[in-house]
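Your task
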Amino acid sequence: QGKQKKARKYAVMKRMISLRDQRLNVKDRAKVPVKKKEDPSAIKEREVPQHPSCLFFQYNTQLGPPYHILVDTNFINFSIKAKLDLVQSMMDCLYAKCIPCITDCVMGEIEKLGQKYRVALRIAKDPRFERLPCMHKGTYADDCLVQRVTQHKCYIVATVDKELKRRIRKIPGVPIMYISRHRYNIERMPDDYGAPRF
């Protein structure tokens, strides 16, 4: 006589005893949460996100020459590959004075890349670059740039990173500078999104 084949049961979970089960000791049982009755006379508080005063609908009134441009790690690397002078190309793109800003996180990222990116490090230490100190822990530059741009809407973000671009596009009033066809281009500048014309 052969063994009887048992049909396998799929997605069967182990039956677990509830923490409120009567068979458990009193000290092991989960306490039943007591619901507090809401006071109808109490003032109800709800948090409404504060919109920045610099935005006129989608138009950012804080943006104006001299433009402060937050530079990302890969933007410097791609500029070197495309043989573009960072400051001069920015000025050619925007037709105004540009101040490239570099955060401690981006500087840390470039330093971590090692000997291969020593040219990028030398460019980042240029005296024309404005250095922005970071107060947070860690050196993940993308989060730092997104947080800084959310708080202060006076920056243009220079990046080639698709993921960072996607995150910044969700923030209203923040233009993105990128490289294509060996020149700098700008996305979402004030003229593009319905600037008030008086």
